[in-house]
## 1
Amino acid sequence: MREFVAIEVDIDAPIERVWQLMTDFEGYEAWNPFIRHASCTHPGPGGQLVLDVEFEDGMKRRSGQNIVRWDVPAGGEANLTYQFTGWLPRLRLISAQRVQGLVSVGNGRCRYTTREQFWGLLVWAMPLEKVRTGIRSHALALKSAAEHQAQGVARTGA
């Protein structure tokens, strides 16, 4: 059995600015209400992420992730994909993969999509509504932060 959480949002900021925010893991604390802290061993495939997640109800979880795809903005597209690591996926109890994509839609705007897929023997125990709420708050906060930065640049001309 596979479960999915998917969100899509249009952002009034250039794809490069959104990518920079998405991949500045140490900067997540400043804008991300769902992933409260993140660290990365190195950007790119094979990089290891540690994500400290805080759900809306205050429940906290730490998870390790392995970056499997890192496509910087090129040709109007970008992609960041990572997979859950640890003993749960090794035992095939719960596995997960999150794909975050950006597509330029013109006029300095882009579309952000994120999809997290879960599978394994214990997938039924996943708090999917909490994950959905968290991922939605992540997407909307990314939109807000990128648009705020883009407006600041437009005002200063930098």
Note: The radius of gyration is 16 Å.
## 2
Amino acid sequence: MVNPAIDYDTSNAINIIAIALLVTSISIIIIPIQNSFAQNISAPAVSTWGTGHLNVFVVAPDHTLRYNPYFNGRFAGWQQSLGHPPGVNLTSDPAAVSWDPNRIDVFVRGSDDNIWWISYDRNTNTWNNWQSIGKPNGDGILPTSLKRLGFENGVGPPNGAWEWNSAQYAAPDRLTAVTSPIKEGSHALKATVKHGDNASGGARAEVVLNNVANYFHEGDNAWYHWYTMFPNGSQPTPPWQVWTQWHQGDDRLTGGPAIEFNVHTGTKLDLRVMPWFWDNQSCFTVAAGQCGYQWVEPIRTGVWYEMLFHVKWSQNSNVGSVELWVNGNKVVPCSGCSTHMATLDTRDPTASVYLKQGLYLKDVISQPQYVLHDGMRVAKCPPDHQYYHPNTEKCYTSPPAVFAFSSKR
């Protein structure tokens, strides 16, 4: 048996081509799939328990396992669904095997990260119930610390800041927990700033992780995973807006935070390291690899951005570094960019930073501005397992590949 492939014909119907040794010759079998079923199916898995028989499996767009058996010289059709485990969607390509003429076993990853198993017994002509065989942990270990900073527990302004330490806002309604749109749990944060707002010396509405025990210091290996949306109908207004930042531990310092995520000119999202340093050099070009900008891309409204950000915190430009994955794809270090840089402000005697999220903007903006955030996780990994994987919330010896954490919550 060789690996099957997917072929798209001119009518936009998908045909799975399975090439198998049938009797003594190689046959090409076309398995048509209705157009209504043709979008976003998984790659197929194929097994056989003997000559002249094939079993083809795919995960359908509704996250169920579909089955099409071949016997007596033809396929029976895709009408047979094997469903999915109760309360669990199927999220990977299936794998199938027949180790006996009367047996089929199929394995698929579930939305709970467990591997799920379903088997067929030809003697009784029945499919057994779905069973979990557990979650592979590999070489993963628990982070040295993991904080879940959401908006599910506690109260918000004016009496609290949910799961964060504190909040900065001009009025309590500038920071609200909303039930739609959300990315995980039952609430997300809506941060709003209006013309004339002033809080802690600026036009801002931010939740803050700023008790000293939660500062990030020289040598910390920290990961941040969260979701951000600029809702449909919002019009981010020039010149700049900061939507997530790591502020120096010494609040007397001016010129911008150590690291910031921005909206620039109302059209671009970016990540910038040491903005105060580059501004002092009169370097303002908003382009990846220039003036401290590590990532720049056009803004899209109405979609959740999934952010995974890795920082080695250091005042030493040969030690500090940043990595960034956006919607599962690694975008930093950018092509041709330096892999190391100072990530802690060299002017700061505390050699530390703290996290702020919400919205902070140039106070000349006249229209109300708002943004949504959800599901911040902050993890610290030990040096020998320095890579955090959001899928498992564990630390590993190798970096995460393209991930789809958002599809599993």
Note: Residues 1-29, 404-409 have pLDDT under 50 and may be disordered.
## 3
Amino acid sequence: MARQSIYWPQPVVFYLYNAYFGGVDTHRDSNVRSVLAPLSDMAQRYGVALICVMHLNKSNMKAIYRVMGSLGFLAAARAAFLVSEDPLDPTGNRRLLICAKLNVAEKPASLAFATKDEKVVFEDKSVNITADEVLGGRSNIEAPERDRAVEWLKQLLSGVDSMPSKEIFKLAEENMFNERMLARARKELGIKCFPDFDEEGNKSWYWRLPGPDGDKPKLPTLSEMYARLNKMKKNMTLSKISTQ
């Protein structure tokens, strides 16, 4: 089998692509295609790759419809990539490179990068996120993770009457759920949070799923009340001794 060589065409970059169209109405698909067709023929004839940079509009539509002007711009492209800020990055320095369209091969995974010492540095691992999720904002990105947290918390509490909140937070951390995500999952499930007391009168907070008998907080038994009172008296006695 003969070895095939790879040809790397020279790039030609158009920044703000639609600004080169002069008086052509770039919102009309037929007008845009009448310009792009001969431009594509010229690129093929000279063996160059056209890289066209465009801005997005501020609509709430899917990513492929967010290009300013006619959809013909995106339809004519073999590949389209989105560069966006990471909505979940508190530093504001992380960027995402996401493939929005690719009709010559399988779509590659999304990548994350940042600028460091005036250099672009890509992260080693890919990012599991789509262009629609990024452009939809923080809520769209967090939705799948929130659903996973809801399902995890539901399974955790479904087999028990209640569970200490400290233990739940510990297990949530082990499963990579932060407190904010856990709080949202608790609210969505309608989980009840109530205090309970051990034999020495120490108070702890517990979580349980709502149910026919689960809407009212559990009251301490009589022995628990006595234990709590004795502990309070003991603490008051120790406090008096320490102040003398």
Note: The chain has seven helices and nine strands.
## 4
Amino acid sequence: MSNISTEWLYPARSFSLIFRDIQVFSLHIMVQLLSGLVSLTLLLFSTLTVASPHVKRATLQQVTNSGISNPTNVGFYIYVPDKLATKPPVVVAIHYCTRTAQAYYSGTPYARLADQYGFIVIYPSSPWSGTCWDVSSKGSLTHNGGGDSNAIANMVTWTISKYGADTSKVFVTGTSSGAMMTVYDLDIIKIQLAEADRYIERNGRHLSGDVCSRHRV
């Protein structure tokens, strides 16, 4: 009789032991879950840190005292990276209708690429209602005609002069109405830079051969 278990005579004690075991097991599970949650949080944080957007050190600047001819009052904005290349290229980035220079700066990768490669980005801003570009008037279609294209070309020559940019590496890009403007600006910029090159040649500092053939979009 002494070898027979008597736990059945004390059911409250048996339930207490079972409840204690359940509590210990639940606590163990909670510790494991919290440990896994902390590990997952750290993993997500490190992933977001690595994949965080590029932070530009320089900022978009408005040029208001350039002294260029700008009869239509086209906004002149420029991005010059902190680490500027020697004789840097110049990219003209022209926005589309309903947008501005600031929006095109924020919504395109040119400034980020400028930080990486050391080139300058010019962001013209349309002065017209709806912010489309004048791509049909005689002024915009004519060299020195006083239109939007002429103002943008003047921004390019000013930038080349101020920063010692490479006249063989001038590029023009744009979207929609801005893309139409690139067609006119390309030819006008070529003409203006060719004239500037001839002026340099007359002053004994000729850079190289046919300037018109060396400008690209």
Note: Confidence is low (pLDDT under 50) at residues 48-52, 196-217.
